Amino acid sequence: MRRHFHKMHGLGNDFVIVDAREQPIDVTPALARSIADRRTGVGCDQLIVLEPSGRADLRMRIWNADGGEVASCGNATRCVVQLTGAATVETDGGLLEGSSLGAEVEVSIGQPRFAWDEIPLAYPTDTDPLPMAWDVLAQPTALSVGNPHLVFFVDDVAEVLLEEIGPSIENDPAFPERINVNFAQASDGGIRLRTWERGVGATLACGTGACATAVAAIRSKRAASPVMVTMPGGSLSISWAPGEAIRMRGTATHVFEGQLDVETLK
């Protein structure tokens, strides 16, 4: 069976998008891993499947490259809004709103959550700062922006050994659903950011990571809204005030489209 797909990216964070609103597709972890494989599949950070929704224009489901399904993805939301023109998108992380602004897309991803059981953590504790440390990295901010994040502020993000420290923090038993790990450097009113994404690894950009980091920076007065967050793949503008939804603005790029041979990839 062949299925049509679109390949898109948001600042290098890349996706295979399958529209299953009229013809369902059964995604298993093995199929998601096969599609995401950059040698024997299409290659992507996340597989995105669009389904019908009873409360939004469509429902978006997300599988990471390791085959695990996750609740939210900011860069993917921008791509889906750009591709379909949807104004509302249902995800397991909440109801998101978006609008296309030419080459850029702005999406609203809801309010950040700081309660330990909403992130979630394995036990009750303070979350801002979180009283934990990994070597010299200590007391990050823990929060959920539809998926779980830690934010460390460091003097120089270029010096962080992302591939070494990222996996150990992601898989720490304190985080029952694993966690995304962000290393941020406040610079000239903006933020430089590198992210270790759970189930993916080091990525060129992470939309929800940029949102989580901007919220942490605004709360700690390291930056003022709107914050320009610059990642290896490019920059996003993030706006937020306490009690309000986070708004993210940036590009969404269509690369190509093609056909998946689902039976071969299973």
Automatic annotation (TrEMBL):
GO biological process, one term: lysine biosynthetic process via diaminopimelate
InterPro entries cross-referenced by the UniProt entry: DAP_epimerase_AS (IPR018510), DAP_epimerase_DapF (IPR001653)
GO MF annotation: an example: diaminopimelate epimerase activity
Subcellular localization, as worded in the UniProt entry: Cytoplasm
PROSITE patterns xrefs: DAP_EPIMERASE
This enzyme's EC code(s): 5.1.1.7
Biological or metabolic pathway of the protein: Amino-acid biosynthesis; L-lysine biosynthesis via DAP pathway; DL-2,6-diaminopimelate from LL-2,6-diaminopimelate: step 1/1
Chain sites annotated for binding substrate: 13, 46, 64, 74-75, 147, 180, 197-198, 207-208
Major localization listed first in the record, in broad terms: cytoplasm
Reactions the enzyme catalyzes: (2S,6S)-2,6-diaminopimelate = meso-2,6-diaminopimelate
GO cellular component: cytosol
Record-marked site positions (Could be important to modulate the pK values of the two catalytic cysteine residues): 149, 197
Transmembrane segments: none
Keyword annotations of the record: Amino-acid biosynthesis, Cytoplasm, Isomerase, Lysine biosynthesis
Active site feature: 73, 73 (proton donor), 206 (proton acceptor)
Subunit and partners: Homodimer.
Annotated function: Catalyzes the stereoinversion of LL-2,6-diaminopimelate (L,L-DAP) to meso-diaminopimelate (meso-DAP), a precursor of L-lysine and an essential component of the bacterial peptidoglycan.
Similarity comment text for this entry: Belongs to the diaminopimelate epimerase family.
Name used for this protein in its record: Diaminopimelate epimerase
